[in-house]
Design a protein that fits this description.
This protein is α/β, with parallel strands linked by helices and 472 residues long. The protein folds into three domains: 109 residues; 129 residues, Cobalamin-binding domain (Rossmann fold), CATH 3.40.50; 187 residues, no CATH class. 31% of the residues lie in helices and 18% in strands. The protein has 14 helices and 21 strands. The protein has a five-stranded parallel sheet with strand order 4-3-10-11-12, sandwiched between helices. Strands 7-6-5-9-8 form a five-stranded antiparallel sheet. A five-stranded parallel sheet has the order 17-16-18-19-20, sandwiched between helices. α3 runs antiparallel to α4 and α4 runs antiparallel to α5. The relative contact order is 0.12. The N terminus is likely disordered.
Length: 472
């Protein structure tokens, strides 16, 4: 679309914000509205964002909130906060009868000062009526070589050492703040996020654990420029090409602003929204969600640049099995302190290629679908090497007993499972304690508080879905 003059006819938002709430209990939506109606903070940027949460959640437009962003874009002393306010003004303008042209140009200028070259160039191009965004794809290069004489499989050798001073770039969601869980304290500055301000669950818990073992600099990467191609949205790479698919519900966040075929995601979620800033802001490690094809492609793209990526939401890591790139990619994995470093991974466990492995699977939809992560990994690995696999389907949480029962019937001593709840943790722990021969491989478990205890309690027998398995 063209941002041509200041005043235009109001245009409908190209995103169905109310669609976000489909599938949620109406009471939850009501409670969220009630909470944010009473929410107070001295930070005007956060308060303006809260007003947008109320707008989108209650379907009650309030274009006068733009005045707060206007003041921030002009007077806030922090460069990144001025950039955020300017971009929000630009992308929210058409819905409120303002073209956003001047704000878009200001945002482009501020992005240059922030060192965000790809974002700056694209923001500038968006003011040109003739601009045609470029879209591309990423082919994940993989290779797994299995010696003809191989008898065993070793998983868990891959490790990443994080020394003091490491720069870590993260998604905003579930690390810096989380509007859906009422966590809105972070001020969106360019300063490193202190450990006390990091959220204590999901990706936030992983980053806190790392920061608790070694002093690191953590930067939530906010403000992702996206473009629509067909009915899908894509995030940028560092050259100005839109390559990485963004899931639709992230476009429906109340703090995401879109006009025509372009948008700005403030509360970034997923590696697919982080690529250009991770490169431009010199992140050595990136932490975010990996639960989509687009996110897996973004992980590989960053690994090609030598950037390491941690994604405890690892449902799609099967796409990366045997990836060929210098950066280290790790999904669910142990995190511990060795010397002055935090170390991720590095917990090898050996398996005979002939021994039965009972693998958890599901055909259920959201939110149960993540239980297919073990099966996705082993189906992919089985394409490279013959394995003795037995798949067991679950259709709800807390059915790990089905997998363990099948292991008993098969006299199998290896299971590949997801552990997301306390009952699942207790059941697997009891099974591991029942025999010193029992071993477990964890998938999509790193988001929850039960994987790390299992890794530490059974360091010789619990490991993870290594993307570079070794064969002997």
């Amino acid at each position: 679309m063209r941002f041509a003059s200041d005043k235009i006819a109001p245009q409908p938002a190209p995103v169905c914000y109310s669609c976000f709430w489909q599938g949620y209990d109406p009471k939850f939506r009501h409670d969220l509205i009630d909470f944010y109606r009473q929410y107070q903070t001295s930070d005007p940027l956060v308060m303006a964002d809260v007003r947008y949460v109320l707008w989108r959640a209650s379907d009650n437009p309030s274009c006068d909130v733009r005045a707060a962003y206007r003041d921030l874009a002009t007077h806030d002393p922090d460069l990144y906060r001025r950039l955020a306010a300017s971009a929000i003004l630009a992308f929210s303008g058409p819905e409120c009868g303002q073209s956003g042209t001047r704000d878009m140009r200001r945002a482009s200028s501020l992005a240059v000062k922030a060192g965000l070259k790809a974002e700056s160039a694209v923001l500038d191009h968006m003011t040109d009526h003739g601009y045609q965004p470029q879209f591309g794809d990423v082919n994940i290069a993989t290779s797994i070589l299995v010696p003809l004489s191989a008898k065993t499989l070793v998983l868990g050798e891959t490790a990443l050492q994080i020394p003091p001073g490491t720069r870590i770039g993260t998604q905003v969601d579930r690390v810096g703040r989380d509007w859906l869980s009422y966590q809105m304290r972070w001020d969106l500055t360019e300063k490193p996020l202190p450990i006390s301000a990091m959220l204590d669950y999901h990706e936030g818990a992983l980053v806190r654990r790392i920061a608790g073992f070694t002093p690191v600099e953590v930067y939530p990467l906010f403000g992702s420029v996206v473009a629509r191609h067909g009915d899908k949205w894509y995030g940028l790479d560092d050259t100005g090409v839109f390559r990485f698919e963004i899931l639709g519900d992230k476009m429906q966040y109340p703090t995401t602003h879109a006009a025509g075929r372009y948008g700005w995601i403030e509360d970034t979620h997923g590696i697919s929204a982080l690529v250009p800033q991770a490169i431009e802001r010199h992140a050595q490690v990136v932490v975010g969600c990996g639960d989509s094809v687009g996110k897996a492609k973004a992980e590989f793209y960053l690994a090609q640049k030598g950037i390491n990526v941690l994604f405890p939401g690892d449902r799609y890591e099967d796409l990366l099995l045997g990836y060929q790139a210098p950066g280290v990619l790790l999904g669910t994995a142990p995190v511990r302190k060795i010397g002055n470093n935090a170390v991720i991974g590095g917990q090898p466990v050996k398996f005979a290629l002939s021994e039965p492995i009972v693998v958890e699977d599901t055909k259920a939809l959201f939110p149960v679908q993540y239980y297919d992560a073990p099966a996705r990994y082993f189906r992919r690995l089985h394409q490279f090497v013959p394995l003795n696999l037995d798949y067991v389907e679950v259709d709800a949480p807390n059915q790990i007993g089905r997998v363990l029962a099948q292991a008993g019937q098969r006299r199998a001593t290896v299971v590949a499972v997801r552990v997301a709840t306390e009952p699942e943790y207790k059941d697997l722990k009891d099974w591991l304690q029942a025999s010193a021969q029992h071993r477990a491989i964890l998938f999509h478990s790193g988001l929850y508080p039960y994987a790390q205890p299992l890794f530490s309690e059974f360091p010789q027998r619990v490991t993870f879905g290594d993307l570079h398995p070794r064969f002997e």
